[in-house]
Specification:
With 292 residues, the chain is mainly alpha-helical. It is 70% helix and 0% strand. α1 packs across α3 (77-112), α3 (77-112) runs parallel beside α6 (157-184) and α5 (133-144) crosses α6.
């Protein structure tokens, strides 16, 4: 009589997953590091002022003097592309980190504030999500106006960051709340509570370190999503002033030249895709390391 043996499907070993995650982290880190270095040393690798106009050399083709040519006002496209990194990366970082901090704090309150508090917070999240978020975001940014900037933030940046915060905290609240509820019910946390440890120590030493992983991964990916959203808003003429060296604004101003000076539109598009890909690789690599 032949005995049938069920063979479990092969799964990737933790070592292989960790190795792949490390490779993604390295590749993504190199890409992002190159953008950061370009932003920091922009005066050294560009021709100077991104707003400087030279009407005698409008729409010049790429050359040794102008690596990406010039735009309709004779401004050096390479200089504007590099200086745009500062704006897009700065708004992307703040547009992801501020909602993450606020949403995580609310998630902690929901996870440890009792059933009534948890239900109230979740219903608030449901109400906010019920609005068409993109329309709400554009309306909020348009209502606040470009403003005059503040500290290291330029005109139009503060309303965009406020808009990101107003709609993105929900994602972090729901994500971290789910992880907190999972970790809260584990044996080691119950043992810590039974042992009489203060709730603050249980949260900081046992719950949060084991629940925050996916939130960190999403923050990194969300920076890339925020950069894409910034460029989209600028392309639509919302938020960042059109004359600012910003990738979406550059695509908007050169969209009528796609048949003649296509590189003016392609260069910022490639920059957006490359930086977003680098951040996605870092997030994917972190996810692999956490799961392994």
């Amino acid at each position: 009589m032949i005995e049938l043996i069920e063979v479990a499907p092969a799964t990737e070993s933790p070592r292989r997953t960790r190795r792949e995650g490390s490779g993604k982290l390295v590749c993504g880190g190199i890409v992002v590091a190159l953008f950061v270095l370009a932003a920091v040393f922009a005066p050294l690798i560009t021709t100077g002022d991104p707003a400087a106009q030279d009407l005698l050399h409008r729409l010049a083709p790429p050359s040794s003097q102008h690596l990406l040519g010039t735009d309709q006002l004779g401004r050096d496209a390479w200089t504007r592309l590099v200086y745009a990194i500062r704006i897009d990366l700065r708004i992307g970082l703040l547009g992801a980190l501020i909602p993450a901090m606020i949403g995580s704090a609310i998630a902690l309150v929901a996870g440890f504030g009792g059933k009534l508090v948890d239900t109230a917070i979740m219903r608030i999240c449901d109400v906010v999500v019920s609005f068409p978020l993109l329309v709400f975001f554009i309306a909020l940014v348009g209502l606040l106006g470009p403003g005059s900037g503040w500290l290291f933030l330029g005109p139009g940046e503060i309303p965009i960051i406020i808009g990101f915060t107003a709609i993105s905290w929900i994602v972090y609240t729901r994500l971290l709340r789910t992880e907190i509820r999972r970790v809260r019910d584990t044996d080691y946390v119950r043992a810590a509570v039974t042992g009489g440890l203060p709730q603050r120590r249980v949260i900081l030493n046992h719950v949060l370190p084991n629940a925050i992983g996916q939130t960190v991964v999403y923050v990194v990916v969300d920076i890339g999503l925020a950069i894409v959203a910034i460029a989209t808003l600028s392309f639509l003429g919302v938020g960042i002033p059109i004359d600012t060296p910003e990738w979406g604004a550059m695509i908007n101003s050169s969209r009528g030249l796609i048949l003649t000076n296509w590189w003016l539109m392609a260069a910022p598009g490639v920059a957006i895709a490359t930086l977003a890909m680098g951040l996605a690789l870092i997030g994917d690599g972190l996810d692999d390391r956490i799961k392994s």
